[in-house]
Amino acid sequence: MSRSRRRLPAPEKIPERCRPQRPARPRAASGRAGHNVSVIADLTKAAALDRAGPAPADRTRTDAAPADRADVSDAAARAAFPDWRFAPNIGGRPDVYEIENRAVDSGGHVLAAMRTLAPWDGLDLVDLGCGTGYWLARYAEHASTVLGIEPDPVLRAAAAERASDLPRTSVLAGSAERLPLPSGSADVVHARFAYFLAPGGDAGLAEVLRVLRPGGSLVVVDNDYRWGQFAELLAGASADPPQRTAAAIDAWWRERGAIRREVRSELRFGNQADLAAVLHIELPGAVAASWLARNPAAAALTYGYVLFAVGRAAPGPASGKAASDPR
Ligand SMILES: C[S@@+](CC[C@H](N)C(=O)[O-])C[C@H]1O[C@@H](n2cnc3c(N)ncnc32)[C@H](O)[C@@H]1O
User: Fold this and answer.
1) Are 192 and 144 in contact, with CB atoms under 8 Å apart?
2) Is 24 part of a structural domain of the chain?
3) Residues 6 or more apart whose Cβ sits within 8 Å of residue 279
4) C-alpha–C-alpha distance, residues 224 and 43, integer Å
5) Alpha helices, DSSP H, located in 118-241
């Protein structure tokens, strides 16, 4: 990663408990994300799940990896990254998750909010839990360097394939809790749908803060469990009331000095078949089927996001803000 860079806006001083306790142990086809269909199709064969099997409840659900992934070094990855939690949606059906990523935030509202919280132009950016690397190309348009980190060997292989077509972009094995990066080497860390950075994720958060430069920021994208049609579906798929889930997540981040932003957007597909496929990787089959039966012509649904940003305090009198808070 390059060493000369523009500084981020002065970050807010974060509580002591958010600082790194001690250093832990230690890249889309053709230049655009979302088009490397052959790679994703190959991966789908490698990671294929029986669609008739249990469907994931939501992006936060983490089941055991399917047995037919044993030939792709899952055991070695588990030994190296014991905190890796298999993502059944993208891990089980990377081809369908690709469709979902294309449908997510077609208006670019989430990306815009991420940029406002922590601009990355000319800076060193890490995409933590990068999956198949769908977002690497977008980040590489403006970042100085982009590094995707992914513990899942199957997904990481797809991300590395994508990175090979991108400027200043690479992919490494790692997890939130074990980042293969020197302390103070990144300006911005992104984590999209990072269930590993949520209540219980202090080890990962400490490790992320270790690798951030003073003045650097972490931006996490989570579901809004309170707003939108997708939130209603999540509520129908979970035993926990959404208000309680949302309150616990909000409190955890608040206690760690995070800025919170809501973004109201939509999942918009080209046809209902794509929408149906995505609902079936995110929700139990009965919940997905019931919604689809009640909305037979739908090719979109409203989707709310909550973004959390924490910064690593910059030295000197200027320190005093968490990430770039425009308010
Ligand atoms: C819901 S997927 C999102 C993937 C990607 N961020 C995207 O938006 O396309 C969550 C990702 O986090 C990865 N993951 C799981 N446990 C992790 C951990 N402890 N540290 C970092 N990444 C992890 C999964 O392998 C998966 O790629």
Assistant:
1) no
2) no
3) 233, 288, 291, 292
4) 30
5) 136-140, 153-163, 202-211, 229-237
In a domain, 194, yes or no: yes
pLDDT tens figures, 94-124: 999 999 999 998 899 999 999 999 999 999 9
Q: Is residue 69 part of a domain?
A: no
User: What is the rounded CA–CA span in Å between residue 86 and residue 100?
Assistant: 18
* Residue 75 within a domain: no
CB 186 within 8 Å of CB 51: no
Number of domains in the chain: 1
Q: Give the pLDDT of residue 73.
A: 78
Is the beta carbon of 210 within 6 A of some atom in ligand 1?
no
Q: What is the mean pLDDT of residues 4-10?
A: 32
Question: Which residue of 85, 98, 156 sits with most ligand 1 atoms within 8 Å of its CB, as the best mutation to test the pocket?
Answer: 85
DSSP 321: -
Range of the domain at 217: 41-51+90-311
Predicted TM-score (pTM) of the model is: 0.81
User: Strand 145-149 vs strand 169-172: parallel, antiparallel, or unpaired?
Assistant: parallel
Distance 155 CA to ligand 1 centre (A): 9
CA distance 172 to 192: 17
**Token duo for residue 57:** 């409840």
Would strands 212-223 and 186-192 be described as parallel, antiparallel, or unpaired? parallel
How far away, in angstroms, is 316 Cα from ligand 1 center?
35
Beta strands in 132-194 (DSSP E): 145-149, 169-172, 186-192
User: What CATH number does residue 194 fall under?
Assistant: 3.40.50.150
Which residues does 244 contact at the CB level (< 8 Å), separation at least 6? none
- With contact defined as beta carbons under 8 Å apart, do 234 and 58 qualify? yes
